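Quick one - first record:
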Amino acid sequence: MTPVAELQRDWFFVPLAAGSWQGAECVTSCVTQLSAMAAGADTIERVRRTVLVAADVAGTEAPRARVFTSVLCDLVNQGWQLRAGDDGLLLRQPASQSDDISVEKARVRAALLLERDGQLREPATRTFVRGMEARRLGPNGWTSVFSLMRDGAELAGTLRAAAGLPLVEREVAVRSIIDPYIQVIGPTDRCQFTGLKLTDVWRYFRHTWASPYNSTPGRKIWILVRDRAAENHPVMGIAALGSAIVQLRLRDEWIGWSAASFVRRVTADPSAIWARWLIDSLKKLVGSVFCGDFVAERLIRPSELRHPTQRAIARLRREALEARGVHRLYPTAAAHKAAGLGSRRVDWRSEARSPLFRSKRAQFLAELLQARKDLCEAGLLKPSRAALEGVLNTSRGRRAISTVLRHTRAAHQGVDMLDIIVCGAVPPYGALLGGKLVSLLVASPEVACAYEERYGSSASIIASSMAGRAVRRKPKLVLLGTTSLFGIGSSQYNRIRVPSELAGGAPGGFLQYEELGKTEGFGSFHFSRESIGEMKVMLARSKGGRRVNSIFGEGVNPRLRMVREALDLVGLPSDLVLRHGSPRIVYGIPLATNFRDILLGRTTRARFILPRSAPRATMGALIQHWVRRWLLGRIESAKVIEEVGSHVLTNPVHHGARICLPYVQEEAPLFPVHGTSVDTQNRPYIDS
């Protein structure tokens, strides 16, 4: 197919000449059906099933036709418009944002629910949900996951009584009604009241989110916020911290990690200190790479590590390409997965010699030696202001600085900062702004200390595989980052600004979420699980094999790279189709005043905003701030109390924390048992 051509009024033409490939007829039929129907998830899913079956007649082009038609179904389901044109089809994106906040949120939520509901239709997920909801004998009698939900009617009644009290008495009463605390989840921890695995409890409530639940590689911390004031300590909210997104323009510019912002900073202060940082950082990076096999094979000589030559750099680049080719043919995913499990018996030298990390080591070393060569030629032989100014005045010198900065950033990003990947309240606490509480507590010293304790002695997988030995970096959590679910309207992170002295910190500081701007609305979340599965099959069967293996350590965002490659292969405009039109607000929350110097490796001593000496006491101060700042005023609203009371646990359960399984026709019973009925979620319950 030829490249996409832009038409007037934001319509894009995708050539699809009849006879140019065997799947063209199937795609044309799909476009005709989708453009003539009213949008609706159920209807679109029926079209998807029909056209996927019809695509099989395309012979060897069937995988390509299946991807093409499945992606079109996804786009229409999210408001894209399609038209059949002469020898092709016309595409138009939905409006990026509506002026109506509720309309925009509904559009984004519909896009997220597409994949979420697909996940909830999977047999394994449905079995898990029903198993959690089934009654079982626990430590204190018969329980289920419903035992960890707070009855809204009971909570509303007690809050209604407290709302009429004077302010001081109201605060005392509310603290006896709602008493939050954090529970950081270990891999084998179980609930002391129900006997349920806490990881399963967390996962159950995560499935109630609009977005699908997916495991993420790298470091992670799962958190429950529970209420000790009620029986069984019901779950108030859930959160998770995970390895930070590798590249995020707004965040990187704010931190000083982008090449342009860093060069501006150094140019404004070209001191000998920065020159020393540049020399020392480069030396440390070169020393972090295992080179024994390269030297033994005469790929590079020891003297060339100190005084690089262009020939040595070229040899390393050729070796990187050759090893990458071997890895693509034989990716050995199982071996990398075993190393990723954190086993203490990993042979890091063997891992370093694997094709993947041999390629990464050769490329990494080539880039560092090129930077060293450029810096030396620019005159940076000793740390001085004059030498640094000479480097900044040459394009090769600035390029070398960018290389050192990029790899220094990578060394700290996976250790000293994390992303908030899940954060929110569980009904009925959401109406009480429980999301604000969870947002505060994930930034508490108790969570940071738990993270540092868990990973303080763990070997870094990628760093150890690059060094050929166990590399343990003591973490100092100094920054959290996150993005909002919606790019418009209020967010639970807004207006969170806690004076540090309220929690025992130094006067004048604040623990706060800083809004950094909005993303460009580019990504792959809007593709269904069906489309992702079809893409994987097509790429696996394509000429040359599948080039994106989704192995930890292989590269940035393997899913996005895989989707882009699949879209390009079928002839859909990836730059257009990946632009989902749902920008999100980017936030950063510093935990230390000198977080930038920590993340650049300029210092190892963090100046924390909140003290780490008594994390429980600090958490109590944050909870008290939430109660006074938001909760006490919230319970005075009759509408809020009514919403809280709508979540009931009496049979049949109508509670917002209960997972709503999508209807699956195959599971509907032919002959319902007498005395029971079946709800729209396919769950039999006894009539009360």
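second record:
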Amino acid sequence: MTENFKSVLENILKQDKRLVDDSGELNGNLIHEYASSLDEGLIDLLLNEESTREKFFLKVKDVYVFKQNDFKFFLDENKIDNSYTQYANRIGLSTGGKFLKDIDDVVLDFPYKDCVLEGGQSTEEGTDTYFEYDEKEQDYIEKEAKRKEIFFNQILAKDEIDRLTEPKAFTNIKRYTEKGEEKITSFNRNEKGQITDNLIIKGNNLLALHALQEQFQGKIKLIYIDPPYNTGGDSFAYNDNFNHSSWLVFMKNRLKVAKELLKTDGLMFVHCDFNEDAYLKVLMDEIFGNQFYITTITVKSNSISGNKTQHKDKTILKNKDSILVYKNKTQIILKPQYSEKTEWDTHYNSILVEDELGNYTIRRLKDVLIEEGIIEEDYTINKNSINENDFYDFIFNNKDKIFRGVNSIPQDLESLSLENENQVVYIEKDGNKMFAYNGGRLSFLSNVFKEIEGQQKMAQLLGDLWTDIDFQNTQNEGGVSLTNGKKPEELLMRIIDMTTNEGDIILDFYFGSGTTGAVAHKMKRQFIGIEQLDYGDNNSKIRLKNVINGDKSGISNIVNWKGGGSFVYCELAKNNQKAIDKIMSCKSLEELITLFDELYEKYFLNYNVKFRDFKEKIVNEPEFKKLKLDRQKEIFARMLDLNQLYVNVSDMEDSQFKLSDEDISLTKNFYQL
């Protein structure tokens, strides 16, 4: 029966040409993706056939509800896919004999409270630069040191996960405007009921992403993230150093959820470096499909100088980052980006002159420049001439007349030109004149000028190599000072301008100091930022308040930013996360032992923890006492039930969680309960 139905389903699906590959076989990955996004064409196809309608839809009165999970389960169980694709898909990342795409474990991460992250995700291979006085030199010497470990990670196996990803309650909800902090009574929405507030969410990003699913699935136009690079020694150095497979599972958990939030024409940009970019590319091919890979942008992120050169004889020094770019499902439209051209193109060596009678003649550019007194007769125009003010002013003012000859030419113009030898001719199309001379078209310098940073400049179309953005002087952008890893506003401006329009929603779930939100807000886009870490005086809330109040740094002058707008700040309501915070704040084993009774009484511990044995025996063993405090903290934290990190919406009215009526009401308003 199942085999017969499988054949029926395959024939039905093959009616949709989008689901068939070049060999005429079904593309199982694509079918999965269309099912996940509730694609209208796929659902219509299944509804129109009685057999599939009965199997994959639930009729409620006069409405058919698509049983999405049942459909995807049937695809998996019955291998609705061509055999080549089945085997091709098995070539990928694996660990412990299992393919990464088949692993449903969840990696959670927790920052140590007694350490401060200096900012973003550093590109400096996990070292801090500092100065120390040297008696011999009688001077302060620049030195480097490995950063402190500030995170540990914990893996939650699939069979241990029950309520982890349920919608979470919110607390400490506030709206910020030019007038300051304001009480919020409801979230702003458009006529379709979609939230239009800019959002900053504090809490674990994996769980916050799940919390966004109901309200923002299929609504996000751009996701940009700058995740931990897994350098083995940087600010995200995990106690087990987060080997490739652990880090990739960590990323997979988050990328899979994030992908569901993208619009069908949405894009994802993931900023990374050489430590993981090759592995990440394979992972993202599996999640998005390699047919949706667009490119890898190479960004010059620092200069090789000073202390960085000390190992130049042992390795090739790094001064670049990578940005992996993927689209979601359908065709995208990108706005071309340009960088300023810094060298003169000497092919532009002629100028078109019009006399009083409207006749056109061609003169050598150098001769005109000599007549104008801009250059001497013995001057040779070269690529550096553009840097001379008088020369540049002349070419700018005459950009509609200076030209080079090109071979591409419409047939009618070419014929007219060849018929009128040694004469300038033109044809007029749509009010514009197109000129030619002896069969060649005149391409004017004005075509090279584009608007860059609000000004008309000679421009070069950008590809996948970006070397023109300054990463070195971003420390104080936005009024928050971070010395490492902070991305320049100009980088985000380029990405946002390339991929989005005003009003589109942009998500960054490694929000850091809030660069993505700051740029999005200045460019009149809606943003959602998620951040788990505490940046102290350099946090995103402070930065966005500065933006609203008219921050002048970064791209403000380019976009003529004057201030205004608002954002809503909120936190995932903590449950066991409070206990983890308390564990991380302990300064000694004695404090941890004192805390144990509170953990036992007030929080949810793993059912299989032998509490008495741990309290009366293990913590008193000499071997346990010899462990580093960080390791002792990790062991204490592992006793907690990670499914209960934050308060679930279904439990939020329970008095034990002490959520205010206001928090409960606003949480209901967020989810439209």
